[in-house]
Amino acid sequence: MIEVKNVSKVYKMGKERVTALNNVSLKIDDGEFVAIVGPSGSGKSTLMHLVGGLDTPSTGSIYIDNKDISKLKDKEMSKYRNETIGFVFQAFNLENTQTALENVMMPLIFAGVSGKERKEKARRSLEMVGLGDKINHKPTEMSGGQRQRVSIARALVNEPQIIFADEPTGNLDSKNGELIMKLLNDLNSRGYTIIMVTHNMEEAKKSKRVIKIKDGQVQEVSKDEI
């Protein structure tokens, strides 16, 4: 479903050129749970942002279901991000002045879903992550683990094919981290493709496949190697 072909990403920083990814090629099949690991600055998040449509490659192509998203225009790219993928971030990225239900409804507003249907879909999404009793709570009234589950519910609400999780347990204690990893594995068992960027090697081992990035290049590694 996902094919990255000969992708490089070069950033200009003043007079310098920094190569974040160098001629990367890889495939991720529909329904996989892939962990992307590597040291800080290795290119992990850059790769995720490119596949997620948040950035474009300097060279190369990125195919999602045989469509080259690197050639999409702004409106088409926005539609891709809204309908095909869901993002889960380390910092949760929730609006503290809004309830859990209102936070989860946000992608549906951009998708043009009507008010009554928005509420029902957001409610179902929160129930899916075990927060059906917290729909009227604001993020400031929740634990870190609960906030991350709201973030996951928001990522799920448009029924995407792919979930991108960028350091999803980075701001959580070990107990809540384990709960989030269990939830991601449960979602994967339901058919969602999960791509997780992490520094946590123990959590990487809970994925089905590990890709390591170092100095902008990728290599497949076994779980025994990390």
TrEMBL record:
Domain of life of the organism encoding this protein: Bacteria
InterPro entries: AAA+_ATPase, ABC_transporter-like_ATP-bd, ABC_transporter-like_CS, ABC_transpr_LolD-like, MacB-like_ATP-bd, P-loop_NTPase
SMART domains associated with the record: AAA
UniProt keyword annotations, A-Z: ATP-binding, Nucleotide-binding, Transport
Domain ABC transporter: 2-226
GO molecular function: ATP binding
Pfam families in the cross-refs: ABC_tran
Name by which UniProt lists this protein: ABC transporter ATP-binding protein
PANTHER family on file: ABC TRANSPORTER ABCH.1, IMPORT ATP-BINDING PROTEIN
